[in-house]
From TrEMBL:
It comes from Candidatus Cellulosilyticum pullistercoris. Keywords: Membrane, Transmembrane, Transmembrane helix. The chain crosses the membrane at residues 54-87, 94-113, 119-142, 149-169, 199-216, 223-250, 262-280. This is Uncharacterized protein.
Length: 339
């Protein structure tokens, strides 16, 4: 029992030290994280569009990422719209205009209203590029609001639809070719692009996992966030299993899905532990009422460690040592008074 208490206390001490370090260097850590996300997104955009213009250099990308790391969420979205259009235009002007129109619609209908949550669109695209997409719905459901699920869905759809548009639209340079492409756009079967079995499966699974975790963690139950992570992991594994059964070849390895889900669930548990630790054993339910309503409020205190300060006192057993110490103190006092 004592060993368990010591291990729990050690974990809490580690957590508290990490939080204190983060708070001390928060003004430096947050821009670094934003810089990494911005730089990764810019590199992904450069590779996807095969752009080799004036903004393709590494130093230029670093400069653009630095701007994004200190910009507000809304300006990051506007900056992203501009850069995507600029990088795509040399590859295919028609595609650049299409993407510009799509991103403007997303900005007007969603990003303008929820700028902070819209960052998850960019995070989702970066996560897909580095094979961490299964982590996104779990972490977003723990840390963000429910409207973030729309950003995750938008990012997932863009990840699968944009490469399809690039493949069906050849490069256009001359006006005659652009007219041919405009005619080709009218006869493209968009059903194959928008109703891709793998994309639709991932969208549905992400929505279910996010919703399950978000709803459960909001419930008034002990260890709700951790239970939510477990339920979300089970839903993720079952979702991909059913997708493989019903759709067959969606390009998903079930063993890899299980291992990644377990690993990312562990990462989510660590994130939740660092976020907040509650003492459910001291939870209380308070009832009160006013003229219109009757309230049930559950109060769960946070766990805070108190630092123990050890004071060392020296006791003189020899009277001569004590008199010598008092004489030194009196001399120092006389010197400070100018005597």
């Amino acid at each position: 029992m004592k060993s368990k208490m010591k291990s729990n206390e050690m974990l809490l001490i580690i957590r508290q030290n990490l939080i204190s370090i983060f708070k001390r260097y928060e003004s430096l850590i947050v821009p670094i994280v934003r810089f990494i996300i911005s730089f990764s997104a810019l590199r992904m955009l450069r590779e996807a569009t095969s752009y080799h213009g004036v903004l393709s250099g590494t130093l230029v990308l670093i400069g653009l990422a630095l701007i994004g790391s200190f910009a507000s969420a809304e300006w990051m979205i506007v900056w992203t719209i501009f850069l995507v259009t600029f990088f795509t235009f040399p590859l295919n002007p028609i595609l650049a205009l299409i993407l510009f129109g799509i991103m403007c619609i997303i900005y007007i209908l969603y990003a303008r209203l929820f700028p902070k949550e819209s960052i998850w669109i960019l995070v989702t695209l970066v996560a897909f590029s580095i094979k961490l997409e299964l982590l996104i719905p779990i972490v977003a459901a723990l840390l963000s609001t429910y409207v973030s699920v729309m950003a995750i869905i938008i990012g997932t759809i863009l990840w699968y639809v944009v490469p399809g548009l690039i493949s069906v639209l050849p490069n256009a340079v001359e006006k005659s070719e652009m007219i041919d492409i405009m005619n080709q756009l009218m006869v493209i079967d968009y059903k194959d692009l928008l109703i891709d079995p793998r994309m639709m499966s991932i969208v549905v699974i992400f929505f279910i996992v996010f919703s399950a975790i978000f709803i459960i963690r909001k419930q008034s139950i002990d260890y709700g966030p951790y239970i939510a992570i477990g339920v979300g992991a089970v839903m993720n594994i079952l979702g991909f299993g059913l997708a493989i059964i019903f759709f067959g070849g969606i390009g998903v390895n079930m063993i890899k899905v299980v291992l990644e889900t377990l690993f990312f669930s562990g990462v989510a548990v660590i994130i939740q532990f660092l976020s907040v630790v509650l003492d459910y054993q001291r939870a209380e339910t308070v009832n009160f009422e006013d003229d219109d309503n009757y309230y049930y409020v559950k109060i769960v205190p946070k766990i805070h460690l108190t630092h123990k300060h050890t004071t060392i006192k020296k006791v003189y057993t020899d009277l001569s040592e004590a008199n010598h110490f008092n004489r030194i103190m009196m001399e120092d006092d006389d010197i400070s008074r100018g005597l």
